[in-house]
Amino acid sequence: MLIHTIGQELKYDGRQLSSLWAFRNYRLQGDSIICFRGPCQVELTEMVDLADVIANAPIYSESMLHFIIEHFDLDLEKTVVRQRLFISQIKEVIYKRTGRILSRQGDDLFYGNKKLSVSIATLSPVSTMIHTGLNISSRNTPVPTVSLVELGFSENEILTLGQEIAETYANEISSIKLARCKVRGVV
Amino acid sequence: MLIHTIGQELKYDGRQLSSLWAFRNYRLQGDSIICFRGPCQVELTEMVDLADVIANAPIYSESMLHFIIEHFDLDLEKTVVRQRLFISQIKEVIYKRTGRILSRQGDDLFYGNKKLSVSIATLSPVSTMIHTGLNISSRNTPVPTVSLVELGFSENEILTLGQEIAETYANEISSIKLARCKVRGVV
Amino acid sequence: MLIHTIGQELKYDGRQLSSLWAFRNYRLQGDSIICFRGPCQVELTEMVDLADVIANAPIYSESMLHFIIEHFDLDLEKTVVRQRLFISQIKEVIYKRTGRILSRQGDDLFYGNKKLSVSIATLSPVSTMIHTGLNISSRNTPVPTVSLVELGFSENEILTLGQEIAETYANEISSIKLARCKVRGVV
Amino acid sequence: MLIHTIGQELKYDGRQLSSLWAFRNYRLQGDSIICFRGPCQVELTEMVDLADVIANAPIYSESMLHFIIEHFDLDLEKTVVRQRLFISQIKEVIYKRTGRILSRQGDDLFYGNKKLSVSIATLSPVSTMIHTGLNISSRNTPVPTVSLVELGFSENEILTLGQEIAETYANEISSIKLARCKVRGVV
Amino acid sequence: MLIHTIGQELKYDGRQLSSLWAFRNYRLQGDSIICFRGPCQVELTEMVDLADVIANAPIYSESMLHFIIEHFDLDLEKTVVRQRLFISQIKEVIYKRTGRILSRQGDDLFYGNKKLSVSIATLSPVSTMIHTGLNISSRNTPVPTVSLVELGFSENEILTLGQEIAETYANEISSIKLARCKVRGVV
Amino acid sequence: MLIHTIGQELKYDGRQLSSLWAFRNYRLQGDSIICFRGPCQVELTEMVDLADVIANAPIYSESMLHFIIEHFDLDLEKTVVRQRLFISQIKEVIYKRTGRILSRQGDDLFYGNKKLSVSIATLSPVSTMIHTGLNISSRNTPVPTVSLVELGFSENEILTLGQEIAETYANEISSIKLARCKVRGVV
């Protein structure tokens, strides 16, 4: 799985969650995970989570650490399972780095009652995709949130954290492929 | 997803990891998770993890809390992802109940350097299956282990823990199915 | 499988056959079958059956009992088989209620030489979908048709019939899932 | 889809429901439906329907019209849907030939309270398979049954009926493949 | 697999690579291969190969022998394997007809350093598709090319060659389906 | 894709075509291609090609260059397409090394009327597999054969040839995966 961290800021407005975005822009050909930081503002018309659209709950954050994951298969349920595992891994990495324990509820991470993350998984015509964003700032968010800074990360550490999370995910995906290739069938 | 907790002790010798074991013995028809407690002794000839067979590492524990999961599809990679998520959930439930933080390495759980669990995922002719065992006793195990008792669970709480873990998994599987059914595709 | 009957009239113009229509409008999250009544007018530009487009055969009925089915998988052939079974079930329910025997030809139902139904199955980006319409009125249809009223249903019974058909389908889908989970493999 | 009617009697004992039975014995290479007549006696050890094994309900009939269907894919749920459609078709053919109306309950056919049929669908290592048997005799069956003879077929007509049912199924499978190839996707 | 050769010239501009093009225009319902001749000019906005888009390499040829293949499944990787095999077959047919040996590099054919072909495989909402074009003329192409005429085919033979290639592919696809239906599984 | 060449001779008797043979014996975990040389003798009871079993055509060669390929998916048709492509590649490599042109008929290679190869593709419980053998000796074969030696390879070059063929296949499989990840979908 290919990993890329984007150095400059980039606003996430939903259009990054489109097939081959990683290939078009960063020449990553194959399953990939990209991380970058930037504001997050997704209008209702761009949202793929129709539960949020119905609830009229647009997504907004002044600053987030973003991940865009693409898997070139068409099994959305499988990618939702991967997404849940990815959220678990973020929790594990943050614990390792800060000693703080987040709670996971489905594809959301909380610190106490405050939300750290947004995440969605969907299908493109040629792949399945995941977006996950972690608040770097908790100001002006539509719901009570916590930020990575409040959890103890300095601004300088954010992209390093992103890179570590991306590597952790890529390693687990590799490890999963290996685990699939070592067992005999049962009756 | 169907859940069943077996009241009496049952020895796990590997033959429980066979298709429709839940239906044959407990009338569970459909995807299911069963938990029970009992010793664990899997001879090399019964093991499905060929990496362990090659390493000549039979599985033994005087007492374990066992889970047998069956999903009626044939995508082993997907079930390995589910397995990793299941292991993450066990960690989350144990934290919630004891405040103790385990570390997960792939499909293994550790407390410090001591291993709490064994787990394997495989294919049957009609389904995919997972076995996971958590040590209730750490005596006489072939590698250094930690037990649920040492983590703070009393003997009386073991099956309740098993039931809670099973429910947590079944709830997440339901939640995953729902998450798959709320998103529009992207371009 | 989720079932919903819409009380008020709704015109079917083809746009209802789009992914997550049931979730967007009626909060049904998961595989679903919806029934409602209303006129049916699908312009050539909205038709998904290209055989009808080629034949320049737009669909029109002054009043129909409609069903919209959505299955969240991407196997169109499987959904065509489901569609054929659904058409068989409509025939079975109408016989049970009226004693009248329809003949099925693929995905069409006839009473003598007169057509009762239209039906199509297709793929959306995230699911497979079926539309089936049964004439409540046979006036002004482009081909000779028979209506549910002519088969003996009163106007008041139409939605009850729709509800019964929807339940019959949902029950069979459940029963099929169970049947898949009770057999061992053969050599 | 290949069709073959076997002229001589053949006892069905369960072992005919094995992969490539049609190819090994009758050189049918590809999806196929075979029909033949003969007694039916399946011991519990040969049964694939574990619900029947649990209920200790062996299958026995002095004389049946048998169908063995093989599809070279591995989606058992899809083949269960096909099986239900096949059972519906048998009902339709019998009505067309005798004017008698059977009732279908899942994969069973009844005439009044008497059972006409047995049927099962399962997976082989390389295909999915269906067996269906229709009683030619109703003597000595373990449950109350009706026979094709009692429904009005003479002994001489049995294989012709079988051939017609097989052709009806093969035609519908072809028609389903065509129906999958004429629709554009929707949004 | 259905085969059709179009007698009159047709310009390939990329829009022919769309689902059901063969059905809409030539009534081919099912997996198909169509061949025709005509100029080739695909603007960047119509190109599906994003590697070429990134490289700003539009496709142009004054005259080509074109093939449009459609398979009604959604496994793009499988269709890429089919595409590679198709390219191998073109090489085999040209050798048989001219004694000239082309070299294949992935989905490209070369004669010495000169390129004979362009090819791409992609997904539509309901199928997978392949376009392959073989130069009839090598004039004004953006890269050094060789043409079928330079390889020894007269203008009159071009469509016959196309027909032979199409038949060769269709025969192999049939043969592959048969090969899938003659083997028992292994342990 | 993992590649391994076995230095010592090994007799191929059919049992090597079993799941995880590469992992059990050579620690290759994942899709793999192994080559080795040795006699080939497959009794009818071990053969997976039932067409050969029916024709009573056991496989025998005093010396062959063998390839065992394993792909960890369950789509046999896809692996038959891969097999055909693999056979094409063997032809291409032999041409490059000797200038001799073989003809391919399905999964067989011929030099004139003499057969160079045997090949079969099948399913295991956890994977799909291919065996291909190329005659090193043409003595005492049940049908007229040609050998790699007669095609101009010295005994010393055989394993090098095997290694080159294996690398060519592994490279193409990688290239196919990349090709799947560079195209946008079409309408």
From TrEMBL, chains A, B, C, D, E, F:
It comes from Desulforamulus aquiferis. GO terms for molecular function: catalytic activity, acting on a protein; transferase activity. Gene3D superfamilies: Bira Bifunctional Protein, Domain 2. InterPro entries: aa-tRNA-synth_II/BPL/LPL, DUF366. It comes from the Bacteria. This is DUF366 family protein. It holds the Pfam family DUF366.
